[in-house]
Amino acid sequence: MAKSLGRQALAEFFNCSSQILDDRESLEHIMIKSAEAAGAFPVKSLFHKFSPHGVTGVVIISESHLSIHTWPEYSYAAVDIFTCGNTIDNIRAMEYIKDKLSSGYYSIMEISRGILNIEENKLR
Amino acid sequence: MAKSLGRQALAEFFNCSSQILDDRESLEHIMIKSAEAAGAFPVKSLFHKFSPHGVTGVVIISESHLSIHTWPEYSYAAVDIFTCGNTIDNIRAMEYIKDKLSSGYYSIMEISRGILNIEENKLR
Fold this sequence. Notes:
Oligomer: homodimer
Distance between the termini of chain A: 11 Å
CATH superfamily of chain A: S-adenosylmethionine decarboxylase
Mean pLDDT of chain A: 94
């Protein structure tokens, strides 16, 4: 990855358990535990269940945040993990979430946020 | 944009006012107002100031969420707006935020989340 202030992993989880995707409490527990599994320190969390379907939730960690949006009717969830520093293992958190959502297939991409200095990156 | 469950705009705001980037209350106000400017309905918000610098904040809207992470020491902020449906004008929200952060230069990209059906997209 480039030298940057932040890193962001974006995951698409398909064919998940629709029951879990509509369960606000379970999702909050899963997301907090995934942050801990990645070596992050959860600070606060905020989860909201929409009517009739779907949950949006955010866990603020001392290294930035995790978010999840679920569409139980499509068995789909979008998960982002935004971190700063190099100590957090985003992929480990995603693996934990994938297992808990029983996702049948998925994709993850990771991007750099806040690339301030091209020169510094060239010299790596 | 592709037919998808969600759309996500990711903005890099450089050369911002460092004072505003470290002001939790102002940032919460700016982010809520930006959501309203875009036609979204804020539901809940959660903002946290880190020591010594920086703020992380999230506004949950009835159409998903907005997030901001600031590095006042680098005059940089990362802002994401995740929406579903076609009624929210992400770029209008970003314009509002850019002005309030006094960002000197910036970039915005927009991505599709949850593309379920390639056939449907081919037929557009």
